[in-house]
Amino acid sequence: MGFDQFLSSPEMEILIITHRDIFQSAANSDSRFSDDYANLTAIIRLDKQDMKKAGLKEGNLVAIENNAGKVVVKALQSTYEEPHPGTAYMVNGPWANALVSAETSGTGVPAFKYIEAKMKKSKESSITSFE
């Protein structure tokens, strides 16, 4: 029994920007509940320094939570060349949508592109299921 089990992983505030992905769209044509679709959609891409700060390695599961909901997804290092600390990217889909607030500020359109949340390394062993 190591001491690590008693240490909690750091929680960090992030801003999530959602986007479309052509490969995810192709996988969605087969099934929104397929493993291929989940592998392309149940991910969050983080700045290299944010991954280090959170104690994450490529492929670790992270819990993301805000007032709208909570999901567990896989963390990957962003492929965006410029540093973007505090900003993360998720593909549009059930995992990102679970974090979108129903509040529309009178516009009738939720803020799909600007999601504030808290993230930390997850103790769960699998991504959130929507089946």
From TrEMBL:
Residue ranges annotated for the Molybdopterin dinucleotide-binding domain, each copy included: 16-114
Gene Ontology molecular-function annotations: molybdopterin cofactor binding; oxidoreductase activity
SUPFAM superfamilies: ADC-like
InterPro entries: Asp_de-COase-like_dom_sf, Formylmethanofuran_DH_dsu, MoPterin_dinucl-bd_dom
Lineage: superkingdom: Archaea
Protein name: Formylmethanofuran dehydrogenase
